[in-house]
Write a structure and sequence with these properties.
Structural class of chain A: mainly alpha
Shape of chain C: globular
Chains: A mainly alpha, B mainly alpha, C alpha/beta
Oligomer: heterotrimer
Number of helices of chain A: 12
Strand content of chain A: under 5%
Helix content of chain A: over 70%
CATH topology of the largest domain in chain C: Rossmann fold
Distance between the termini of chain A: 59 Å
Distance between the termini of chain C: 47 Å
Number of domains of chain C: 2
Helix content of chain C: 40-55%
CATH architecture of the largest domain in chain C: 3-Layer(aba) Sandwich
Number of domains of chain A: 1
Number of strands of chain A: 2
Shape of chain A: globular
Structural class of chain C: alpha/beta
Radius of gyration of chain C: 19 Å
Number of helices of chain C: 10
Strand order of the largest sheet of chain A: 1-2
Chain lengths: 291, 365, 261
């Protein structure tokens, strides 16, 4: 019984990590940039929803705030790429990592300035309710998180494989120059990728905020999600989700079976071991330079 | 612009490029020695802090700036140096002059131990692996409570060298002098590495691993040596940081410190000793500068503002501006300004322009 | 005994056979050229000798000893130096520093003595710089000594790469398309240098080159390759007139024209 509940709550956490990781992978696949601020995008999405919904701020209906927040984060991602990242074209990955880390610092500060640094709960209709399956009691929030994640992943899958824009994005990710010659507007595609990543982050943020109170420092969750993305094999969308779920599950079980202090360690230990022992599984996309 | 007529090979080998350069750097050193006698204890403390960060920065710079290996985990080695130094003194009763170098050696060996399994990782993947290590060390400090004091932390004893006490508050000038001495030693070591085959093999690995190999450079081994030297220097800085702070725990060396160290040397300017110092000045003095500005505004408007996270945000904003507009950091900007005046009025805007390689994919190695 | 012996070497990438059972040997003191259309496996052979690739079959011997057990960085220590087709210099370093990296094989200090910069290290540095100055004189690189590679024109980079390989003081020098992308005058210089490298320095040269005029003027022997297989070995003239070579070249010439057009 305990184990099943641990499993479901771990799975729900893992879905949130997985969604953030999905944002990392989307951007990495298409533009080779690593957006270390993805966790802060998630935090911002959560706070925008909260700012629109909660009575102490704007007090809009929850179901109205959600699409507005998602759209706002999409626009935000688009603009960030257009204004900041595009200037970084041709610079090293590590420079972009450093830039996005710095961006995360600024975003966290800005969120604290607007919504305060005290933990606040999102007034969400799914928070704090239970669902019973026979003798099993599960949180409605957890069920919704898992369901929404599955739906989002399916939508993204169809977007990338069936729509013209999605295919263009894939093409741009495989070979920028060739895509450019084929008439794909690579720059705009990059901006749109960031927009999609922003929207996914907003969804992750709303789901996370539905499970408990939030403060600006939850942006640092991005580091854990980043570990998840690498564990799942940086560069594949299902992998990101899988990595997120692995991290989500390993945490509660480690503290349950080993000791409380170890739940923090396990995801990073796993990450390190994977980098050391299975670099080729992960680096499958990296080819040897031809000389 | 000075043209140096080289008449012997030693002109390229020497510590300084020409006499005037030697004069300026020695004058700077003299100033650094004399200055504390004219400053308040508070200002001496700030200067000491800058020097300690500069040592840490030089440690990271060897790895990132010289060898091109990004690390997001150097706080772990600050921590290893810091804990090793204090534990060697407290548990084994070693004197400071033994425990400090030993702390450096322990941190260095830990760095080598990290470099060996990760030698195949590049760029962003290495950064992630080191990031994981930083988080792991943070948690291990908490778990290894019997040794490290866990979240309660440890107290650093007053430094005692042959009966002479060095304490940050008790004898600030003497403490500063000790740190300055270590700083000068590290600068000399760094400079020696830069001008010897070792430094050139670092640069070779940084710029092209494949051709470094073809020149007979053992890439994996060179990376391990760079990691070892880098983390050893960082460990020294960590040990000194412990004595400077007096009390420390796992929170003193979080992943955020790792990140800040990397941001620090980027702001300062990658690849030079100057960059480490410029970056250290920014990171160590920024909180003070912000407090001054805040108090100033508070006094003008009659309000008091205190916003958590402000330092990090200002730091982040400065960094974004640098990466976008001056990727060579403060030192790069300084070189431009100096050249402008040396060549006045013949400076051209494109003198420092570097070709950017578009479409450079890092999926190929 | 030949200096370099390549014996029945085969290399496959996935299903593609890049080099198929190729054998040749390079004698001490000669200039040996590999020619052939793009994708014939010339650079792959270079990468095999440099130990960047492992052959699936065959043996490669240098001075009578198999090098297949050696790591890539040990090849330079044996006295084999190389240049790269697409120039692989150390971009953020000066010409002088690039050439000095070539001296790495002769490094005798270690990390401790160099960190302390002992008098021994200083003497070593003088020795390295003297050797490098000779290369700079030989290749007329004086005007670029202190320049960063990142700002140098293509032709100069090509020469610096050759200089860096010479700084190794090799017994065997592998030149991968030393004249590609160079002007007629620069190509002429390369021809003289290759000649001098052979006669004055006594270094054996193995090169890949498309410019048949250059190949004919400097090489003692030539091997033609196509699709990873040996077509012919002999003097430049013999190879150029070999029926198989003519067939391969005419076929490819057509293809090239189509691609260019």
């Amino acid at each position: 019984m305990d184990v099943l509940q641990l499993f479901v709550s771990g799975l729900a956490n893992g879905c949130v990590y997985g969604l953030i990781a999905l944002g990392f992978v989307l951007i990495y696949k298409a533009t080779e940039a690593v957006n270390f601020a993805q966790g802060d995008f998630m935090m911002l999405g959560a706070f925008i929803t909260l700012g629109l919904t909660n009575d102490q701020f704007w007090g809009l209906p929850f179901w109205l705030s959600v699409p507005i927040a998602i759209a706002a984060m999409g626009l935000f991602g688009y603009l960030i790429e257009m204004i900041v990242l595009r200037r970084m074209f041709g610079q090293s990955q590590v420079a972009i990592v450093i830039l996005t880390i710095a961006m995360g610092f600024v975003l966290r500060f800005a969120a604290g300035l607007i919504w305060g640094n005290e933990p606040i709960a999102l007034e969400s209709p799914i928070a704090g309710k239970d669902v019973r399956f026979g003798g099993l009691v599960l949180g409605l929030d957890e069920i919704v998180v898992i369901a929404v994640t599955v739906i989002s992943t399916i939508l993204l899958y169809f977007f990338f494989n069936l729509t013209k824009l999605g295919v263009a994005m894939q093409a741009a990710s495989q070979n920028q120059l060739a895509a450019y010659y084929m008439g794909i507007p690579v720059k705009r595609v990059h901006s749109l990728i960031w927009a999609v990543a922003g929207m996914v982050a907003a969804v992750a943020g709303i789901l996370f905020a539905s499970k408990g109170s939030i403060d600006p420092s939850i942006g640092l969750l991005g580091i854990k999600a980043f570990a998840a993305a690498v564990i799942g094999g940086f560069g594949s969308l299902p992998g990101a989700l899988l990595g997120g779920i692995i991290v989500g599950l390993i945490e509660p079980f480690a503290s349950y079976y080993i000791a409380a202090g170890y739940s923090q360690i396990m995801p990073y230990l796993l990450l390190f071991l994977i980098l050391v022992f299975r670099p080729h599984g992960i680096l499958a996309q990296i080819h040897r330079k031809k000389v | 612009m000075r043209t140096v007529f080289k008449t012997t090979y030693d002109a390229d080998i020497n510590l300084f490029r020409h006499g005037a350069q030697a004069f300026w750097y020695l004058s700077l050193l003299a100033l650094m020695i004399v200055l504390p006698f004219f400053l308040s204890d508070f200002a001496i403390g700030e200067m000491t802090n800058v020097l300690i960060w500069a040592i840490a920065g030089m440690g990271l710079m060897i790895l990132v700036g010289q060898t091109g290996q990004a690390s997001l985990g150097h706080a772990a080695f600050l921590a290893i140096g810091c804990y090793a130094n204090v534990l060697l003194q407290e548990r084994l009763g070693l004197p400071f002059i033994l425990s400090l170098p030993l702390a450096g050696i322990i941190a260095g060996l830990s760095g080598v131990a990290l470099a060996i399994p990760t030698s195949k990782l590049h760029g962003i993947y290495l950064a992630i692996a080191t990031l994981a290590v930083s988080i792991l060390v943070d948690d291990l400090i908490v778990i290894a409570e019997p040794l490290t004091g866990g979240i309660n932390g440890l107290l650093a004893p007053t430094i005692d060298i042959f009966g002479i006490q060095f304490d940050r508050y008790g004898t600030p000038v003497r403490f500063y002098g000790l740190i300055l001495f270590v700083t000068v030693l590290v600068v000399l070591a760094y400079r020696n590495i830069q001008r010897s085959p070792l430094g050139r093999s670092f640069a070779a690995v940084r710029d092209s691993e494949i051709s470094a190999q073809a020149m007979g450079v053992n890439v994996a081994r060179t990376k391990a040596v760079a990691f070892g030297i880098s983390t050893a220097i960082t460990g020294l800085a960590g040990a000194l940081m412990g004595h400077f702070a007096g009390i420390f725990n796992n929170e003193t060396f979080t992943i955020i410190i790792s990140i800040q160290m990397l941001l620090m040397i980027v702001i300062g300017g990658l690849g030079s000793i100057h960059g480490a110092f410029f970056g250290a000045v920014v990171i160590a003095l920024l909180p003070q500068a912000i407090a001054r500005v805040r108090d100033g505004i508070g006094a003008l408007t009659g309000t008091s503002i205190a916003i958590p996270g402000m330092e990090s945000a200002v730091f982040g904003a400065i960094l974004i501006l640098f990466i976008l507009f001056e990727p060579m950091g403060i030192y790069g900007r300084w070189l431009k300004i100096r050249t402008y005046f040396e060549l006045f009025p013949f400076y051209r805007r494109d003198m420092f322009r570097r070709q950017r390689s578009y479409l450079k994919t890092e999926r190929m190695r | 005994m030949s200096l370099l012996e390549v014996e029945n070497v085969t290399l496959k990438f996935g299903g593609v056979t890049a080099v198929n059972n190729v054998s040749f040997s390079v004698e001490e003191g000669e200039v040996f050229a590999l020619v052939g259309p793009n994708g014939a496996g010339k650079s792959t052979l270079f990468n095999l000798v440099s130990r960047f690739y492992d052959p699936v079959a065959g043996d490669i011997r240098f001075a009578g000893e198999s090098i297949l057990k050696k790591a890539p960085h040990e090849i330079a220590r044996l006295g084999i130096a190389r240049t790269f087709q697409n120039i692989e210099l150390f971009e953020q370093a000066t010409v002088l520093q690039n050439l000095l990296v070539g001296r790495h094989r002769h490094r005798r200090g270690n990390m401790f003595s160099e960190t302390l910069f002992t008098p021994f290290v200083r003497r070593e540095e003088r020795r390295h710089r003297e050797a490098v100055e000779k290369v700079i004189d030989f290749l007329d690189l004086q005007p670029y000594r202190e320049k960063y590679i990142a700002g140098l024109p293509y032709g100069v980079r090509k020469v610096v790469e050759m200089g860096r390989a010479l700084a190794i003081e090799p017994r065997l020098l592998l030149l991968d398309e030393p004249a590609s992308g160079l002007s007629v005058e620069e190509t002429q210089d390369v021809a003289f240098w290759v000649e001098d490298i052979k006669t004055q320095m006594g270094v054996t040269v193995l090169m890949v080159e498309h410019d048949m005029h250059l190949v004919a003027s400097v090489s003692d022997r030539v091997m033609a390759l196509a699709d990873g297989k040996t077509l012919a070995i002999g003097t430049a003239q013999e190879v150029q007139n070999h029926p198989k070579v003519i067939e391969a070249y005419i076929g490819v010439a057509d293809e090239n024209e189509r691609v260019v057009a």
